């Protein structure tokens, strides 16, 4: 799955920018509160408006403090997947439960330096694991390949049937880096600047998807 991040889109033309990536599997929406990360983007009212203008499932990535308070309303509004950060709460399982109760899928995200081992046990409460491959806060940063060990570890648990979840990666994904992520067993690839920085974002989504398919074919043969 390819999930273009509208963080790199023109915020004054979000409806058109969403149409420009028709064919995307999910639309990745970065919510930042200027506390958990040193940047501020958009919040629930904008997401509610986006939901009215697209049929593509919204993948809301909450880079915010106190997700227990703020995350469930995104699910209630109709976001398909609501991801929050493991570093932002003492009780991720309770937050996941509340997101599910509000009708959404729940995702757990870990920053590049956060180990995954302490969270492996609780991942069965989640639908998505979002591995950050840049420090959260800004688009256009360079991919950190070391985080792929986390994707590989969780992939193994999914393949062995111990876990059922989507392994998603976010940060620095482009035509050059997507191959390594696909090899590590990632299912869903977020790409912001690599998609919106090109003249034909929909064609870029398709090219990224082709690259993943090619890589998976090569890995299997
Ligand atoms: C960064 C965000 C990403 C961002 C990725 O904190 O979570 O979703 O949009 O942008 P690129 O693909 O440009 O690294
Ligand atoms: Zn994101």
UniProtKB/TrEMBL annotation:
<comment type="function">
    <text>Catalyzes the reversible epimerization of D-ribulose 5-phosphate to D-xylulose 5-phosphate.</text>
</comment>
<dbReference type="InterPro" id="IPR026019">
    <property type="entry name" value="Ribul_P_3_epim"/>
</dbReference>
<feature type="active site" description="Proton acceptor">
    <location>
        <position position="30"/>
    </location>
</feature>
<comment type="pathway">
    <text>Carbohydrate degradation.</text>
</comment>
<dbReference type="GO" id="GO:0004750">
    <property type="term" value="F:D-ribulose-phosphate 3-epimerase activity"/>
</dbReference>
<feature type="binding site">
    <location>
        <position position="172"/>
    </location>
    <ligand>
        <name>substrate</name>
    </ligand>
</feature>
<keyword id="KW-0479">Metal-binding</keyword>
<keyword id="KW-0862">Zinc</keyword>
<keyword id="KW-0464">Manganese</keyword>
<feature type="binding site">
    <location>
        <begin position="137"/>
        <end position="140"/>
    </location>
    <ligand>
        <name>substrate</name>
    </ligand>
</feature>
<dbReference type="InterPro" id="IPR013785">
    <property type="entry name" value="Aldolase_TIM"/>
</dbReference>
<feature type="binding site">
    <location>
        <position position="30"/>
    </location>
    <ligand>
        <name>a divalent metal cation</name>
    </ligand>
</feature>
<dbReference type="GO" id="GO:0046872">
    <property type="term" value="F:metal ion binding"/>
</dbReference>
<feature type="binding site">
    <location>
        <begin position="192"/>
        <end position="193"/>
    </location>
    <ligand>
        <name>substrate</name>
    </ligand>
</feature>
<keyword id="KW-0413">Isomerase</keyword>
<feature type="binding site">
    <location>
        <begin position="170"/>
        <end position="172"/>
    </location>
    <ligand>
        <name>substrate</name>
    </ligand>
</feature>
<feature type="binding site">
    <location>
        <position position="5"/>
    </location>
    <ligand>
        <name>substrate</name>
    </ligand>
</feature>
<feature type="active site" description="Proton donor">
    <location>
        <position position="170"/>
    </location>
</feature>
<dbReference type="GO" id="GO:0006098">
    <property type="term" value="P:pentose-phosphate shunt"/>
</dbReference>
<dbReference type="InterPro" id="IPR000056">
    <property type="entry name" value="Ribul_P_3_epim-like"/>
</dbReference>
<feature type="binding site">
    <location>
        <position position="170"/>
    </location>
    <ligand>
        <name>a divalent metal cation</name>
    </ligand>
</feature>
<feature type="binding site">
    <location>
        <position position="61"/>
    </location>
    <ligand>
        <name>a divalent metal cation</name>
    </ligand>
</feature>
<comment type="similarity">
    <text>Belongs to the ribulose-phosphate 3-epimerase family.</text>
</comment>
<keyword id="KW-0170">Cobalt</keyword>
<dbReference type="InterPro" id="IPR011060">
    <property type="entry name" value="RibuloseP-bd_barrel"/>
</dbReference>
<dbReference type="GO" id="GO:0019323">
    <property type="term" value="P:pentose catabolic process"/>
</dbReference>
<protein>
    <recommendedName>
        <fullName>Ribulose-phosphate 3-epimerase</fullName>
        <ecNumber>5.1.3.1</ecNumber>
    </recommendedName>
</protein>
<feature type="binding site">
    <location>
        <position position="28"/>
    </location>
    <ligand>
        <name>a divalent metal cation</name>
    </ligand>
</feature>
<keyword id="KW-0119">Carbohydrate metabolism</keyword>
<dbReference type="Pfam" id="PF00834">
    <property type="entry name" value="Ribul_P_3_epim"/>
</dbReference>
<dbReference type="GO" id="GO:0005737">
    <property type="term" value="C:cytoplasm"/>
</dbReference>
<feature type="binding site">
    <location>
        <position position="61"/>
    </location>
    <ligand>
        <name>substrate</name>
    </ligand>
</feature>
């Amino acid at each position: 799955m390819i999930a273009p991040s509208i963080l790199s889109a023109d915020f004054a033309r979000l409806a058109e920018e969403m149409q420009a990536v028709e064919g995307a599997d999910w639309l990745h929406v970065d919510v930042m509160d200027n506390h958990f990360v040193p940047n501020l983007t958009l919040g629930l009212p904008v997401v509610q408006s986006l939901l009215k203008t697209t049929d593509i499932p919204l993948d809301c990535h909450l880079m915010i403090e106190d997700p227990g308070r703020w995350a469930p309303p995104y699910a209630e509004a109709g976001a398909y997947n609501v991801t929050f950060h493991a570093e932002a709460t003492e009780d991720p399982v309770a937050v996941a439960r509340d997101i599910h109760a509000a009708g959404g899928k729940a995702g757990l995200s870990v920053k590049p330096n956060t180990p995954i081992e302490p969270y492996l046990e609780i991942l069965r409460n989640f639908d998505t694991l979002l591995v950050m491959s840049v420090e959260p806060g800004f688009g256009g940063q360079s991919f950190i390949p070391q985080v792929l060990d986390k994707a590989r570890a969780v992939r193994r648990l999914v393949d062995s049937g111990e876990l059922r979840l989507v392994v998603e990666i976010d940060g620095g994904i482009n035509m050059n880096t997507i191959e390594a992520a696909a090899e590590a067993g990632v299912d869903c690839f977020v790409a912001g600047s690599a998609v919106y920085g090109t003249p034909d974002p929909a064609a870029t989504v398709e090219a990224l998807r082709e690259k993943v398919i090619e890589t998976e074919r090569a890995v299997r043969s």
